[in-house]
Write the C-alpha cells for this entry.
Amino acid sequence: MEQKKPCATHLNFSDIQVGESYTFTKVISEEEVNQFAQITGDFNPLHCDPAYGKQTKFKKNIVHGMLIASFFSTLVGMYCPGRNCLYLSQTLKFRRPVFFGDHLLIKGVVTSKSESVKILTIKMEVFVNKEIVVSGEAKVTTLENT
Amino acid sequence: MKRLKEILADVLEIDEASITDETAPDNVDTWDSMNGLVLVTELETKFNIKFKMEEVTSVKCVGDIKAALRNHGVVFNE
C-alpha cells in the first residue's frame, strides 16, 4: 500500500518576508541512522558500530552530520518556500555531536531577499537542548507558475 | 576592490590574484548562471545594496560589476 506523503506548504516569493522564521522538530532513531548508512554507503563505525562508539571520546555512536543537515532540505522543501522551492546552495558547519534519540529543533530564518534575481537567503540552524549542533546558510529560489 | 575580489574568489572559487576587470563568465569556468545568481545575492548583502534586474542583466564582466557598485555609492580605492 502506498504511504500517504506529507503536503508541502505553497509560498510564493512575494509571500515571504525578511525576518520570518520556520521551525519543525525531529527525533533521530538508531534505525534511521542505519537507513541513512544503507542509502549513502557510509557505514563508518563511529555511526554504526556500538563497540567502536564506546571507545571514542563520545562514549557512544553519533549521528551522521549529513543526516542532520538533510533536514535543511526538508525546511526549504516543505516549509519555506515549500512546494515552489528550488534549492541553490547550502553552507554547513558541524558544531556538536548528535546522538541517537536526541530531540532536534530545525530552524530557518529568512535573512535577505534579492528581488532582482528572486533569491532568498536563509540562516539555518539545528538545535539540541538549545545548543546549535549544525548551522549554515541556504540560498533558494521559487519555481512560480509551475 | 579587495572586498569585491574576496567575494568573487569565494563564490567562484578562484584565486583573488587572478581577478581583473576583464574577468568574466567567458574566461572563468565556475562563473555559470547559478553562481552568477549567488554572486548577486552576496554583493547585495555584503555591500548592503539592492540591484535592479536591468543592472543584473547588463553585467558582462568584473569591470561592469564595479561600475554597477559605483552607481550604488561603493567607492574603490585602487
The mean pLDDT of chain A is 95. The two ends of chain A are 29 Å apart (CA to CA). The domain at 13-29+64-142 of chain A is CATH 3.10.129.10 (Thiol Ester Dehydrase; Chain A).
